[in-house]
Structure formats: C-alpha cells, structure tokens
C-alpha cells in the first residue's frame, strides 16, 4: 500500500489474448487462477475496439496491473480488495514487493475490458462504470523471473465479480449546454446505461460524460422536463424541470424572411411561447463595417447584412444569424413623348410597388437608338423626370430608353418607348439638267433628294420668266417637259425637293427658248402670195388704165383699193424682205 517507487498509471484497452496466454501458463504451473468465463474464447487484440461499437451491450472493464520487482524476492505475494464506490470501484493492492500490475475490469458477459497499469501496490479508483452492474476483475503482475500474468489473490476468495452501487439523483448535475438548442446533464457514471425522455443525443462536442436532449422550438419560453432513467438500476428515476429562456434558442432555427420592400421590415418567426420579446435589427453594408443602420434607414439596391438582437423581459439577449438584405425596387413608368425634327422629349413619372418612397437620389439616363452624336443625358430626378435627347435625324424611328441609375450603377429594368422625329428640311435635288429640245419646249431632269427627311420625296419644279411663276408642278418623277412656251424668252427653272412639309434649297437653271420657226415660214408664204397678188393687181391696173382711156370702170377702182388695205405694213414688209 505504501508508495514505494514512481507511480505510473495508464488506462488502455488491451486484448485478452495475452491474458489467456498467461492463464495457460499459470494453469500449467500452479493451477490457482480462475479466469473469467469470457477468457475461454480469446479475441484478437485489435478486435476489442470494434467490439466497443456494440451499443446494445454495455462495456466490459478489466484491469491489468503488473508490478515489476525492484529487488529479487523469491515467492512474490499479493492480494487485492475491490470496494464499490460512487461511479465505480476502488481497488486496493497489497503486495510484498513492487511489481508492474495490470488491473482488468470486465463487465460480466462482455468481452471488452478496461485495463489499468500500476507499478506500485496502492489504491486505485476505477470510475465511469455503469451503476448496478456486475463486473469481473483480476489483478496480475509480471514477476522478476519474467513470468507474466501471475494472478493476485482476491480477498474475496474465489469470487471474481463485484457489483457497482445504485445511482443517486445527486449523481446527475446540470451542465452548460454544449450545443445550442439542447439541455444537458453531466454525470460520472457511464451514460450509455442511461435513458432519457426526450431521447438523449450523443455528440462529440459534449464529451462522453454529458447527456443532452434536444429542445423543440415550442419549448423555448416554457418549462421543460427531462426524465433520466437507468437501464441497469430499475428503481432509479431523475426528473428535472427547467425554465427555458431564449438563451437556449438556436439562432439558426429562427426563420427570418428577408425583406423585399421599403421601408424594410423583418418579421422573424420567434418561438410561439415567447410572449414579450423585442427584436431590434441593425444592418451593415458590406465593406462598411463601422456604419450601422436601422432597418428604416436602408437604401435600395444595396447589400446589407442585418443581425437582430432578441431581448426578453428578464434581460436575456440573443443575437440572430445575419440576414442578407438587398431590396430591389421595381419601377412602373408612365411616359409621355414628343418630338421635333432633331430631338425627342420624354417626360415620365415613376411609381414603385415595393418601394413606397422612390429613393431621393435615383437618377435616370435617357438614350435613343440608333445613337446620335449627342445621345446620352443623365438627368437627376425623383419621381417625375424629363429629358430631351437632341442631335437626332429628322423623320427617323428611334427607340428611347429611360434607365434608372442608383449610385452610378444601373439598377432595375429600363423603360423603352419608340418615337419618330418630325419631318425636317430635305436635302436638295441633284444632277439638275434643263434642256430645250424644241424651240418652245423645256425639259427638266434631276435626281431625287437623297434624304427627303419626310414622308414624301417629290420634285417641285417652278418655271419663272421675268420673275413671275408661270408653272409650278410637283412630280413624283424627276422627268418633266413644259410645252407651248413663248419663243425667244428667258426662263428660269427652280427645282426643290418637297417632302410633304418642307422644301429643300432650290437648284436653279436658266434657259432661252428659240425664235418661232413656224411663224417665219408662215410669213414667208404670205409674202410670196402677197407679191404674186401685187403683181397680178398691177397687171390688172395697167390693163384697166389702158381700157379707161377708152372708158373708166368705177368698180375696178374700188377693188384695187381693197387689195391695198390687205397688204401688211411697210416696215414688216421691209424687214421680211431682208
Ligand atoms: C497485462 O499487462 C502486460 C504488460 O503491460 C501485458 O503484456 C499483458 O498482455 C496484460 N494482460 C492482460 C490480460 O491485459
Ligand atoms: C451485440 O449485442 C447483441 C445483444 O446484446 C448481441 O446479440 C450481438 O452478438 C453483439 N454483437 C457483437 C459484435 O458483439
Ligand atoms: C494465493 O493464495 C495461495 C494460498 O491461498 C498462495 O499459495 C499463493 O501464493 C497466493 N498467490 C499470491 C500471488 O499471492
Ligand atoms: C460471490 O458471487 C456470488 C454470485 O456470483 C454471490 O452470490 C456472492 O454473494 C458473492 N460473494 C461475495 C463474498 O461477494
Ligand atoms: C470517455 O472520455 C474519456 C476522456 O474524456 C476517454 O478516455 C474515453 O475513452 C471515453 N470513453 C468513451 C467510451 O468514449
Ligand atoms: C427497488 O425499490 C424497491 C422498493 O422501493 C425495493 O424493494 C427493491 O429492492 C429496489 N430494487 C433495487 C434493485 O434496488
Ligand atoms: C418524473 O416525472 C414522471 C412524469 O412526469 C413521473 O411519472 C415520475 O414519477 C417522476 N419521477 C420523479 C422521481 O419525480
Ligand atoms: C412586456 O414588456 C413590457 C416592457 O418591456 C411590459 O411593460 C409589459 O408588461 C410586458 N408584457 C407582458 C405580458 O409581459
Ligand atoms: C472603424 O472604427 C475603428 C474604431 O472604432 C477605426 O479604427 C477604423 O478606422 C474604422 N474604420 C472605418 C473604415 O471607418
Ligand atoms: C449583392 O449580393 C449579391 C449576391 O449575394 C450579388 O450578386 C450582388 O452583386 C451584390 N450587389 C452589390 C451591390 O454588391
Ligand atoms: C426643323 O424644322 C425647323 C422648322 O420647324 C427648321 O427651321 C429646321 O431647319 C429643321 N431642321 C432640320 C434639321 O430639318
Ligand atoms: C404646268 O406644266 C405641266 C407640265 O407640262 C402641265 O401639265 C400643267 O398643266 C401646267 N400648269 C399650268 C398652270 O400651266
């Protein structure tokens, strides 16, 4: 019993195979050892660990203490006493010399054993056993002659088994919860022999001395009773009722729907039995850890992480898991549009279903496609906005978009409208050719305007002489002839492109018609006739004069006068005779 040498206590699982070997040698030498029944079927050393997996059958404990003699002592003497104590046994070894002892504790009928080594004859406590359970035990040592597993004599003669004591309510103590959402109890008994209502869970986080039961969501803020019984001590029953505060709430079990509307609200599903909880969320923007915002201060289109602080009346505080919040406001546009020949003006009002107050610092980009030189306008506006996109082409179809912008980022869907710009001034006609194919005919030919900038593309031809418009014709063809014009006259041809609304800059050309060739021929014929008539008349006159000398005829005289009257003026006559 006295401390002779250095004490070394090791606790480990050891195969019984070696024990059996020893048993065999012992049987052959002194035949005093009565090994446990289980030793007749020796398992391999490694199989002991796998046996421990059999949860339905409790563990076996066996102790093997070997004492190595420090001095040569011919007949080694040793004996031991097993005393049941709380949570296990106390084993007192008495020996004449110091050896290396091996203590084996083995639950009766099981093959698993608990082994403890000791180099000193002394008192050892073996705990963590099952209550009300019969254990087999043996103490062996290795003597100086090298003989292994010499059995110490038990003071209880041939009895090699001892039963552990009853369990008491005091053996179970409250433990701090090793897992959120669980109620835990601690005991030094082997908890595999214990049962509980609700069912216990085994979790590595809690170690093998702690028994935990899971709380339901509805158990929070209520009185919760755990009953623990022992499968081995039939009479034992332990009841414990705890008032479960929100401290026991597992934050990850709280359902916190993320808000989708502004002003933001989070309505977590708190345990129904908790009547007077207050919950207060504070949010942080990613990257701005220092700035904390209330839910009411959240802005749209921004990522936040919000953590709620739950408080009850007793001052217990519990933080929730973070809720990720990013509220995307939708926008409904009511857009009006108007246009000139170079610009489109849009004016709109926006409403949002999920954002009561459309944020103040939202802005809009207006743009029209196909793009023009000056197509982007950023207009800061709140609900109501207008923008004018300028630099556009006349009479062209545009698709214009109003894109909401928040913090320089494109947000939400853009609103798109189509609009045609008004007609503008067309480009002038090209390749104007004015010819005079006949003496009083003018032919006009030109190419249509390349950009009519309006619904129509006509050539508007004006014919002027002396500053007076004598003809104005719109023609879809650019091929036109003016006939029956005055001869030998200067005409100005002015051609513009006409698009139904506007006329282009004119292209002008001036031409002269030629003399009247038909009139000249007529005059010549007349002259010839006149000369012929004159000659005839003259001859008649001469003849009459000769006759009047013989007797004057009044009638002929008159006829001669009438002929003179028909003769063209003298000037003319003179001119044509040229
Ligand atoms: C007892 O301990 C010795 C030495 O530690 C070991 O060799 C032997 O196998 C053990 N016997 C049993 C039955 O565990
Ligand atoms: C486990 O225990 C059950 C019942 O106690 C027994 O029938 C079975 O053989 C055991 N299995 C092993 C591997 O020990
Ligand atoms: C056990 O007791 C017997 C007599 O009862 C004795 O002969 C033997 O030496 C003892 N063994 C030991 C190891 O003490
Ligand atoms: C010896 O064991 C038997 C049953 O195994 C038991 O009835 C008896 O009381 C025990 N004796 C002592 C002294 O422990
Ligand atoms: C129980 O825990 C102790 C130490 O924490 C460890 O040595 C032992 O192997 C464990 N037992 C089981 C059955 O897990
Ligand atoms: C259980 O309790 C009853 C009486 O309360 C008693 O008679 C009985 O012996 C007890 N059983 C055990 C195993 O302690
Ligand atoms: C524990 O509670 C159960 C039911 O609530 C009851 O049947 C049992 O008698 C109680 N035991 C003790 C020791 O209070
Ligand atoms: C709830 O808490 C408020 C103060 O936090 C207290 O005035 C009120 O009485 C409580 N109500 C209940 C039903 O506990
Ligand atoms: C945040 O606050 C800490 C101290 O409160 C300060 O040292 C740190 O510079 C702050 N960071 C920012 C980004 O403001
Ligand atoms: C917000 O987070 C989502 C995903 O978590 C990511 O797709 C998005 O780009 C983030 N927005 C901003 C503005 O950081
Ligand atoms: C557009 O129309 C106005 C008259 O309404 C005109 O003065 C202007 O030159 C036109 N612009 C173009 C590019 O056609
Ligand atoms: C103008 O000229 C066109 C083409 O020669 C002709 O059809 C039209 O009658 C003329 N109009 C007038 C008013 O002389």
TrEMBL record:
Region entry Disordered, spans: 25-59
Superkingdom of origin organism: Eukaryota
Q: Determine if Transmembrane is one of this entry's keywords.
A: yes
Pfam families tied to this protein = fn3
> What keywords tag this UniProt record?
Membrane, Receptor, Repeat, Signal, Transmembrane, Transmembrane helix
Q: Where is the composition biased (Polar residues)?
A: 47-59
Q: Does the keyword Signal apply?
A: yes
Under SMART domains, the record lists: FN3
Q: Where is the signal peptide?
A: 1-22
Which positions fall inside the Fibronectin type-III domain?
329-424, 428-517
Membrane-spanning ranges: 519-541
What name appears for this protein in its UniProt entry?
Receptor-type tyrosine-protein phosphatase C-like isoform X3
Q: Organism source for this protein?
A: Lates japonicus
């Amino acid at each position: 019993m006295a401390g002779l040498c250095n004490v070394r206590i090791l606790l480990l699982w050891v195969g019984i195979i070696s024990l059996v070997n020893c048993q065999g040698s012992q049987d052959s030498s002194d035949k005093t050892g009565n090994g446990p029944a289980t030793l007749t079927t020796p398992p391999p050393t490694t199989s002991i660990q796998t046996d421990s997996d059999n949860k339905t059958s409790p563990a076996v404990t066996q102790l093997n203490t070997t004492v190595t003699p420090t001095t040569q002592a011919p007949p080694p003497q040793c004996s031991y006493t097993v005393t049941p104590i709380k949570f296990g046994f106390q084993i007192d070894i008495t020996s004449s010399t110091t050896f290396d002892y091996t203590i084996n504790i083995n639950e009766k009928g099981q093959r698993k054993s608990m082994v403890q080594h000791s180099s000193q004859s002394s008192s050892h406590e073996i705990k963590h056993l099952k209550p009300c359970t019969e254990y087999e035990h043996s103490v062996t040592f290795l003597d100086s002659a090298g003989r292994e597993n010499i059995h110490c004599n038990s003071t209880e003669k041939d009895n090699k088994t001892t039963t552990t004591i009853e369990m008491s309510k005091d053996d179970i103590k409250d433990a701090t919860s090793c897992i959120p959402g669980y109620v835990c109890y601690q005991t030094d008994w082997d908890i595999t022999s214990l049962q509980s209502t609700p069912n216990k869970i085994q979790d590595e986080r809690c170690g093998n001395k702690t028994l935990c039961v899971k709380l339901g969501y509805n158990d929070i803020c209520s009185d919760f009773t755990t009953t623990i019984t022992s499968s081995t001590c039939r009479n034992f029953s332990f009841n414990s009722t705890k008032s479960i505060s929100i401290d026991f709430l597992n934050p990850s079990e709280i359902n916190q729907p993320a808000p989708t509307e502004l002003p933001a609200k989070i309505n977590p599903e708190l345990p129904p039995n908790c009547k007077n909880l207050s919950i207060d969320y504070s949010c942080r923007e990613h990257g701005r850890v220092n700035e904390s915002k209330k839910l009411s201060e959240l802005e749209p289109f921004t990522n936040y992480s919000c953590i709620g602080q739950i408080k009850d009346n007793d001052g217990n505080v519990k933080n929730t898991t973070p809720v990720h919040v990013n509220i995307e406001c939708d926008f409904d546009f009511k857009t009006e549009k108007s246009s000139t020949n170079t610009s489109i003006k849009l004016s709109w009002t926006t409403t949002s279903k999920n954002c009561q107050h459309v944020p103040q610092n939202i802005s809009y980009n207006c743009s029209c496609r196909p793009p023009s030189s000056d197509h982007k306008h950023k207009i800061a506006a709140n609900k109501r906005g207008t923008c004018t996109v300028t630099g556009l082409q006349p009479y062209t179809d545009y698709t214009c978009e109003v894109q909401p912008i928040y913090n320089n980022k494109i947000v939400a869907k853009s609103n798109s409208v189509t609009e045609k710009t008004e007609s503008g001034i067309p480009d002038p006609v090209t390749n104007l050719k004015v010819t005079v194919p006949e003496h009083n005919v003018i032919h006009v030919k030109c190419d249509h305007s390349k950009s009519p900038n309006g619904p129509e593309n006509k050539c508007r031809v004006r014919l002027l002489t002396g500053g007076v418009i004598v003809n104005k014709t719109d023609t879809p063809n650019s091929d036109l002839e003016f006939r029956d014009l005055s001869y030998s006259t200067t005409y100005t041809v002015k051609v513009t492109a006409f698009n139904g609304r506007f006329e282009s800059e004119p292209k002008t050309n001036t031409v002269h018609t030629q003399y009247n060739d038909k009139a000249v021929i007529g005059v010549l014929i007349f002259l010839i006739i006149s000369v012929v008539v004159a000659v005839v008349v003259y001859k008649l006159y001469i003849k009459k004069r000769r006759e009047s000398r013989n007797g004057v005829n009044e009638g002929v005289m008159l006829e001669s006068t009438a002929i003179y009257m028909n003769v063209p003026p003298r000037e003319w006559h003179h001119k044509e005779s040229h």
